Amino acid sequence: MTIDVDARTSGGARSSVGARLADLEISRAWLVDPASGREGPGEIVVTDGVLEAVTWLEGVEAEGIDASGVIVAAGFIDLHAHLREPGNEDAETVATGLAAAAHGGFTTVCVMPNTTPALDEPSVLARIRDAAAASGLPVALLAHGAVSAGRAGEQLAALGELADAGVVGFSDDGAPVGSASLFRNALAYAGMLGLPIVDHPEDAALTEGAEANEGLIATILGLRGWPRAAEADAVARDLAILADVVGDVPGARLHLTHLSTAASLAHVRLAKAAGLPVTCDVTPHHLALTEEWLAGARRWSWEALDDDGVARDHWRDGAITAPPFDTSVRVNPPLRSAVDAAACLAALVDGTADAIATDHAPHAEVDKAVEFGLAANGISGIETALGVVLAAVDAGRLSLATAIAALTTGPARVLGDREPSTRGLFEGESANVVVFDRSATWRVTPDALASKGKNSPLLGRDLPGRVLLTVAGGRIAYEAADD
User: Fold this and answer.
1) Residues with active-site annotation
2) In the chain, what are the domains?
């Protein structure tokens, strides 16, 4: 395998990351392109930022090339990230968030509207876009507008104006759309605009004061339980309202984000079988981490199950290796059981879950260095997503093709394939490509993270899949330093 990169401006002079058109040749690599349904040995050529040639190798030319080394794939798409600007720039800015995305292999990022002020009118969207342009980074920034004014859940935001300004969906994420009547009206209005409602499914009446997944570990640690039913019941409500609305508004669409329980996914599976226009995503941390991390375990979710899929004893088999109450694992929805994590993985395999979305939630240290129950929810996860997913691939829980599809064509379909960056390894278009070395690991440290948010439970851990190069919109977004 060889990688030959000549990144330059249109005038030919070498310049900084973000301004550089990519001239790139990669030979004898493993290409993964779910858009065409192909993976295997191949080569790519990028000239003046355009993907000029994709060549699939066969026979003698393909000998010695396999999926254990350098992988070339279409750039990843994150359906759900919090870049905090405007209003909480001490935790993240658009510029640092886009840099983190590029480091993680993402070429498109959809930002959520729980900023301050909320993204409930076009002027806020303009501020975020201006910040993206000022960053000089080529990662595409898309945005979800708020469902309700100020995300207060009382009246609809200016959905039509936001749609005209270019949002890709509507969400009150950070909180559910609690009012059933408001949710119904939002589904109908957004459907007429041709955009989805992206709901954070949670019955707030069941989660008030909750700190951890309801069960043995929460009980032993003295944490207030967060029942699975709070999510599953909200999913069932959303789907029932969708079934009612879609009869009158055929364009109504629902996307359920960060699903975390087997029961929630079972509801979606049945709804899809019935033909309802619903999609959903799962996060890397709900795939690979479990509630036992709150007690100090540091094994992957699949390592917490025996061969029959039954949860192992956390306390008797040496799983507890770190202090309890690490606030970096306080998330919403909370980390669930190993059985729920297995259900999230199975949902990707059978197509119930359409995408992996990071729910990147960076926080300033002051918001995490507190008592567990007072800590802000969220993991800074856009840079570690690939490594976590590849760990599942290495363990045989996902195929490489399924994993890459969940990061590329799956989210592309949710977005309606509105961006060139969502299409795959197609010749003649601006290159949106990630190159990573599956055989190489990298250590997650605060200095290694481009995000301002260092709130990751994976600090100090080696992850597989070192990103070597990210090309977004034909320009170099990230290039790994030479060893």
Assistant:
1) 359
2) 76-422 (3.20.20.140)
